[in-house]
Design goal:
562 residues; mainly alpha; Serine Threonine Protein Phosphatase 5, Tetratricopeptide repeat; Arc Repressor Mutant, subunit A; 30 helices; 0% strand
């Protein structure tokens, strides 16, 4: 088999280094045809050598022009411009995009790839917070892609329109469009580079919309997509970045740190879009553990990418006992970003404003969070809103009123398998119970929070718990509350929590604790704890018995994860 044939075979099988080697060898013997040059460029880009790949794309563009294939030449020019945007070269990018537009405008017939030209304009509007402008541009891309038979344009336009709708607050419609774009990826209609772009953008948008379930699902899918490709660098760093965020939320901090480090390594190898998230997530773990100098260095590295390292850097100042500095960092950061980036900062804003003594600003942020719950019906958002409302009520001197939203927040964090946030709720519950004169409940809540903080290594939270804290100002008296300790489960969900049910499903599919941990972005220790709770609740003693229970109660998975 010739080197060219081997290169084509390797490309089809997503063996990118092999494709690069074989195509390059064939190119030394005779100049590659334009289509093979384009595939070589794609393979080089996916192995992390973006600048070199752009140069080969330019060669493919010229070869298409020489062959008289002007639509393909326009497509190459657009992707050259798009890749230059990712490489941080906007002037060169603008030149290539202008060239692509001129070629399309000079064609006597409609160009199949014209929809791609609207994608950069949509991205520009999206990053500037112009949701309406982005929606218009991406709608044009999607409509042209569908009308002219270009699945890449159609899928990227659908993705961008979904992002624009989330930005505009049309969350349900936006998320539905993201799912539609992902269908095109998962059935194999989309080219490799657009597929990676769609995966990463969908996951990021899910986090912005507080849709933890979708973020989990698509991060697992991206993980498998990356693993199925030989030595893929592009998008792999972003996958590790998203993994780190989920591991952090679920209390698997060692795993989160490993994933963040892997994201940084892949960023340096060629996936530049992972730089911010890799350093930011590493900074988050260092901050939560009390390694403040290391956290600061990570946040500053993240900030060097041009994005604000917030709310992490502001929360670091708060942890260092400098609430006014935290205030001065977070306020302008929130005022200068669009709503999609502002939303995740609101809960931190409540904590910081309360610490700085601005109760009115804290209440305004808490009310903004509560108002979002009307348009974004996501458990994670409701947990933040309830927790923030409780903190404000307690600070205002109404511990009795704080109890109800605080219990709801604790319940929601448990369902989300977020141990650190759940423990923060219990720490505040201890203070509330103290204020209400229920010393026994306060002691139990404090001990429960202490156990979680100790296990996680959350030194600052543990130190704050141990400090003697003053009673909330203007405390009102109220009857002592009943204790909120004990095993948790939703009232209508049977004996198992949502996360425990997921664990049962994976056990029934034959997965080991290690594989279940990887699927759910939690630690193996957490899986073991879930299984212990499940066995106790169901009065079972083995995985075989649990599998039988799963089949009897309709909980079994029909297949193992791919």
């Amino acid at each position: 088999m010739s080197a060219l044939a081997q290169g084509r075979e390797a490309y089809a099988e997503r063996r990118w280094p092999d494709a690069v080697g074989q195509f390059t060898a064939a190119d030394h013997d005779a100049e590659l045809p334009a289509g093979d040059l384009e595939q070589l460029a794609t393979s080089v880009i996916l192995t992390g050598r973006g600048s070199e790949g752009v140069d080969i794309l330019a060669r493919a563009h010229l070869k298409y022009l020489a062959d008289g294939d002007y639509p393909a030449a326009a497509r190459c020019a657009v992707w050259t411009g798009m890749n230059l945007i990712l490489l941080g070269e906007p002037a060169r990018s603008a030149g290539w995009l202008a060239r692509a537009r001129r070629i399309v405008e000079d064609l006597p017939e409609p160009c199949r790839f014209e929809g791609l030209l609207s994608v950069p304009a949509g991205l520009g509007a999206l990053y500037q917070g112009d949701g309406d402008g982005a929606a218009a541009a991406f709608t044009r891309a999607a409509d042209l892609g569908r009308a002219r038979g270009d699945p890449d344009s159609a899928a990227l336009g659908t993705l961008g329109l979904g992002q624009a709708k989330v930005l505009l607050g049309e969350i349900d419609d936006g998320l539905a469009l993201l799912d539609e774009a992902m269908v095109a990826v998962t059935v194999g209609e989309i080219s490799p580079v657009p597929a990676g772009i769609i995966y990463c953008a969908v996951i990021e948008t899910c986090h912005q919309a507080f849709d933890l379930h979708r973020a989990h699902e698509w991060t697992r899918a991206l993980d498998r997509w990356c693993d199925a490709q030989q030595k893929l660098v592009a998008f792999s760093g972003q996958c590790q970045m998203h993994r780190a965020e989920l591991y952090r939320l679920h209390g698997a901090w060692a795993e989160a740190l490993d994933a963040a480090t892997a994201a940084q390594d892949l960023a340096f190898t060629g996936d530049r879009m992972a730089t911010y998230g890799g350093f930011y997530e590493q900074g988050e773990i260092h901050r939560l553990r009390g390694d403040f100098d290391a956290a600061e260095a990570c946040y500053l590295h993240a900030q060097d990418t041009g994005f604000p390292a917030q709310p992490g850097l502001a929360l670091l100042r708060l942890a260092q006992g400098r609430p006014e500095q935290a205030q001065s960092l977070l306020r302008p950061a929130m005022d200068g970003v669009g709503p999609a980036y502002r939303r995740p900062m609101l809960a931190a804003r409540v904590d910081i404003e309360l610490a700085a003594g601005d109760a009115l600003a804290a209440r305004a942020a808490a009310e903004e969070l509560a108002a979002l719950c009307a348009s974004i019906d996501m458990p994670m958002l409701h947990a933040f809103a309830d927790q923030s409302q409780a903190a404000v009520l307690f600070h205002e001197g109404d511990p009795a009123a704080a109890l109800v939203p605080l219990r709801r927040a604790w319940s929601r964090w448990l369902d989300l398998d977020a141990p650190f946030e759940a423990a923060r709720c219990r720490a505040l519950l201890a203070r509330v119970c103290d204020a209400l004169g229920d010393e026994e409940s306060a002691r139990l809540e404090r001990e429960a929070a202490r156990a979680v903080f100790s296990e996680l290594g959350a030194a600052p939270a543990l130190a704050g718990l141990e400090q003697s804290l003053p009673e909330a100002p203007g405390t009102r008296t109220a009857p002592a509350p009943t204790t909120v300790n004990g095993a948790h489960h939703a009232a209508d969900a049977g004996p198992l929590t949502a996360r425990e049910t997921e664990v049962v499903r994976f056990v029934s599919a034959g997965l080991s604790n290690r594989n279940i941990a990887a699927e759910l972005f939690i630690s193996e220790k957490t899986v073991a704890r879930h299984l212990s709770n499940i066995f106790t609740k169901l009065d079972l003693t083995s995985r075989a018995a649990l599998t039988a229970y799963a089949y009897e109660h309709g909980l079994a998975r029909t297949s193992r994860p791919a």
